[in-house]
Amino acid sequence: MGRRPGPGLYIHLPFCPSLCPYCDFATQKYRPGQARELIAGLAVHLRRLAGALRGRRLETIYFGGGTPSMWPAAALAGLLELAVDLWGLAPGGEVSLEANPGTLSRGKLKALRAAGFNRLSLGAQSFDPGRLAALGRRHSADDTRRAVDQARAAGFDNLNLDIIYGLPGQDPAAAARDLARALALEPEHLSLYELTLGPETPFGRRYSQGREPLPSEDQVLAMEDAALAALAAAGLERYEVSNFARPGFQCRHNQSTWRGGDYLAAGPGAHGHLDGRRWAYLPQVGPYLASLTQGREPYQFVEDLTPQQRCLELFMLGLRTTAGVELAAVEEILGRDPRQVYAPGIRRLQELGWARLTATHLVPTTLGLRMADAASAQCLGSHIGRT
Ligand code: SF4
Known about the structure:
CATH class of the largest domain: Alpha Beta
CATH architecture of the largest domain: Alpha-Beta Barrel
Structural class: alpha/beta
Bound molecules: iron/sulfur cluster
Strand content: 15-25%
Largest sheet: 9 strands, mixed
Helix content: 40-55%
Distance between the termini: 22 Å
Number of strands: 17
Mean pLDDT: 93
């Protein structure tokens, strides 16, 4: 196996202009005073983490949220500059920013590109005015189109669009029209998510009891089949259950995390992983900042993974990617050949037609990608639990 992928840095900026009713991310409504304190706190936190990588340079930096793009460009640029000062950034390093189309302008995009951001992930979600309103999005389809034009003019040549399907009242034809509008903008990358109903979200409460109709399972499958065909025809190759890219434009930060790579984290609710230890920070801004002020690492939890847990994660995440699970990576952790240790589970996956074994990888089939959660849980999870 090659060296473990990464390292990366994930910075979580939790504020949003308003809260979307389907969202169950660690996010909260924007409060200017607290936002200023958080920027200062993040700088303190990054400096405190300076020695954690023991001289390794960052390969990727990812600003996620929340809506990071609602912050002033100067604040984002300052955090990025600090991170690069502290750890360095490998040549060709990927620097991503999640953005809401309604929070961008020509000048801001120019400033962000000049500061070193080179990948922009736009939360388009839909191009249908009614569905954007139902999703609680503040931006319009035209805002997204304008943001794409302005990002191109500012020099961003690595753009992602997030699209959601399976929305209330949506049929397969409507979902196909929505995706076609996204593809007309020629993004290098597209993340396509089925609407999920978090039980604690307003959408979850409203739709999960079946009082209002969502598309049927058959309709959702039809949407997915049509989407896979349209994405392939547009030259966007699937490389993870929900992620599609032109060759060379896969999100390296996410790929690294799916392959068990190391990444530092900062920000309320952020998760990190380094040398077999994983952790999350306190999700609320106030307690996160208070903990930093008191000189403590603001952990919500920290956990040293057993070799079995690390292998389970490699299987669970790898079976969601078209590259599959790298067997040498599992063997390096376990010290034994995974083909033997997990033989019954792997055989079961093959019998179900969910995965195939190559010389180096356990690779999910298209059906296996559709069944990814069940694949690892039913076929490997129970077995790994016993080893
Ligand atoms: S903008 Fe994104 S992170 Fe913020 S509430 Fe909406 S879905 Fe959640």
